[in-house]
Write a structure and sequence with these properties.
This protein is of the alpha/beta class. Helix content is 41%, strand content 19%. The chain has nine helices and nine strands. Helix 1 crosses helix 8 and helix 5 crosses helix 6. The protein is globular and about 45 Å long. The relative contact order is 0.19. The mean pLDDT is 88.
Length: 211
């Protein structure tokens, strides 16, 4: 009997509000692609459900898991903690599931530094403009300008980590962005490294975003 082929890790990161969560959910609709459901200490947003979107826990429980070294990765983002349980992720990968992570650059770095015996594909998502990003943040956070402005303050620092990723794409239209990502994942998964993104275009776009 043939040994079951291990799954791969696909990581999507972006500045807050650039659309990575929507893209992660679209990818998860594909066969054998499953979202890694993180633990978090933040409060659920409208329409979010415990166990589906996140495992919502108290800070005391989260810090206990840190001390017990249960996390594959974890990070503090906007005064809240987020983390992925190592045992759960590893078991699913061994069963052949491809696990998608919706995490920031801190978590990505931790996973890459662990030297796991699984293929890791990392993708960074950029917004089409700062104006559009702010509009998305306002919509997501129920028109709360204070929350949106706090996230915009972190924008520059987050964007500067795009160089740490295998692939960078601009999310101007969700379907177009999704197709680019799937094409890249499929080629990388099969070790056909023929997809190259336009680094000069991305650099120019980032310069526009930061000014």
């Amino acid at each position: 009997m043939a040994e079951k082929k291990a799954g791969i890790i696909v990581i999507l990161s972006s500045p807050s509000g650039a659309g990575k969560t929507t893209l992660v959910k679209k990818i998860s609709l594909r066969k054998k692609y499953k979202i890694s459901v993180s633990h978090t200490t933040r409060k659920p947003r409208l329409n979010e459900k415990n166990g589906r979107d996140y495992f919502f826990v108290k800070k005391r429980e989260f810090t206990k898991l840190i001390k017990e070294k249960k996390f594959l990765e974890y990070a503090k983002v906007f005064n809240n903690y987020y983390g992925s349980l190592q045992e759960t992720v590893i078991n699913r990968l061994k069963k052949g599931e491809n696990i998608i992570f919706d995490i920031d650059w801190q978590g990505t770095r931790q996973i890459k530094n662990q030297k796991l015996n699984f293929k890791i594909i990392t993708i960074f998502i950029l917004p089409p403009s700062k104006k559009e990003l702010f509009k998305r943040l306002l919509k997501r956070d129920q028109k709360d300008k204070k929350i949106a402005k706090e996230r915009m303050k972190q924008f520059k620092n987050d964007v500067m980590h795009w160089k740490d990723y295998d692939f960078t794409v601009i999310n101007d239209k969700i379907e177009k962005c999704y197709r680019h990502i799937i094409n890249f994942i499929n080629l990388e998964k099969n070790e056909k490294k023929v997809v190259k993104f336009n680094r000069k275009l991305i650099k120019n776009h980032i310069n526009c975003l930061l000014h």
